[in-house]
Amino acid sequence: MTIKAILSSPAYNTQTTIQGWVRTFRNEQFIAVNDGSCISNLQIVVDANSLNELDSKRVHTGTSIRVTGVLKPSLGKGQVVELIAEKVEILGECNPNEFPIQMKKHSLDFLREKAHLRFRTSTFSAIFRLRHLLSFAIHDYFHKNGFVNIHSPIITGSDAEGAGEMFTVSNFDLENPPRNEDGSINYQEDFFGKHAHLTVSGQLEAELAALALGKVYTFGPTFRAENSNTSRHLAEFWMIEPEVAFNDLNDNMDLAEDFLKHCIRFALENGREDLEFLQEREATEDKQKPIEERQTAPLIERLEFVANNTFERITYTEAIDILLNSNHYKKKKFKYPIEWGIDLQSEHERYLVEKHFKKPVILTNYPAAIKAFYMRTNDDQKTVAAMDILVPGIGEIIGGSQREERYDRLLEKCGQFNIPEESMWWYLETRKFGTCQHAGFGLGFERLVMYVTGMTNIRDVIPFPRTPKNAEF
Ligand code: ATP
Ligand code: MN
């Protein structure tokens, strides 16, 4: 049986077998075992009959064991049930002098170096159970709302988006690739007959599907070779991209807000124990930090607040005015300059959500020049129908827009952004054959997991993070 099943409804006085890993072994009598099914351990009570002296020397933190015994109400404090062992089998030994994960507190940096073993800690098992729950919540939400899940390709032949930050996919011998007369690499000879990349987004393909299936979403890995070594960027991350035919920017905002709230509520309802554990962990960590860096409210309270309050909606232009009129700006506390037209820096975004509004904010209608070519031009001709959702502690969690559905306008934008028409012919054709208003957005899955778990480094919410100079494991 799993420990989760036992703890949720213990079948007292019946014989039960469990398997798991030892967390602690106290007084030659009590073994705390965890099997990953939940945050709690099961207490095993052993004696000389169930665990002989020789074997008892082999029980350490990390040892895997199988225990058969009878469940009894526990007399000790800290648990309601315990397993009175009849037989303890040692399945896999764990040398305490070599096993790096001990019961003492390890730093997250240390555990990142031991990513193959960090699942064994309560913190990381809680994070990855919550990550699973959120993934499930996402499929649940879209399925219930009539969306079709589209598997967009991971290898792409289009470099329309973020050309500079894409990884090349090739089976050339890198030492000696075929070359053109001018010395450049001849990608026509390559596997795909062209220069192929790992995708940075499944959006363009999702749009094609939405213009037939109506409501679709993608949920897959995306890759960005951006060399930004921040606590919020990975080179490989998972993105959820819904796309809906006939939606405008307002519909898009409504969908994004409802969707985020659903995911948060789902975690609150189904991942309570893990959230409580992480909340306590955060509170302990916070005590070591200067007051201004501490959380303003406990994790669960923050999540409940987001689930139960409407997001603030303002335009980019209004945001710039707020920033320019802030005391923070007047006291010259922003590092980067502020004027209409700038790409907002993380310090600006965080000021808006954390200091000014103290809640999630949806920023709309950005200057066209700082946003992607496919966003719909507004009537003012200066801005596009973009929307970014910013949340406290993280900054941007969602980026989306109403798409340019007018063929001529889109073609013009391709020209302005130096995107060759030949490479985008298939995308452009959707605007020729039954085009319609449509909108969508991209949610960075790891940013959502960070938000829900309260973890502050994105490397701690994905099992094996890929970042510059780091692809161990
Ligand atoms: P940022 O400004 O934070 O770098 P972006 O504007 O490049 O993000 P988009 O292209 O709009 O991001 O991607 C949509 C979403 O994907 C973002 O809102 C964010 O949640 C997530 N995201 C983007 N880049 C990364 C990354 N390198 N690692 C993890 N998540 C990311
Ligand atoms: Mn963005």
Chain-wise SSE layout:
Elements: H1 3-8, E1 15-26, E2 30-34, E3 42-45, H2 53-56, E4 64-73, E5 81-92, H3 108-113, H4 122-144, E6 148-149, E7 155-156, E8 168-169, E9 196-198, H5 203-213, E10 215-223, E11 236-245, H6 249-270, H7 272-287, H8 299-308, E12 312-315, H9 316-324, H10 327-330, H11 346-357, E13 361-367, E14 383-391, E15 395-402, H12 407-416, H13 425-429, E16 438-444, H14 445-453
Parallel strand pairs: 3-5, 6-10, 12-13
Antiparallel strand pairs: 1-2, 1-4, 2-3, 4-5, 7-9, 8-9, 10-11, 11-16, 13-14, 14-15, 15-16
Helix pairs in contact: 4-6, 4-7, 4-14, 6-8
This protein binds adenosine-5'-triphosphate (ATP) and manganese (II) ion (MN).
Adenosine-5'-triphosphate binds at residues 224, 226, 233-234, 237, 239, 396-399, 442, 444, 446-447.
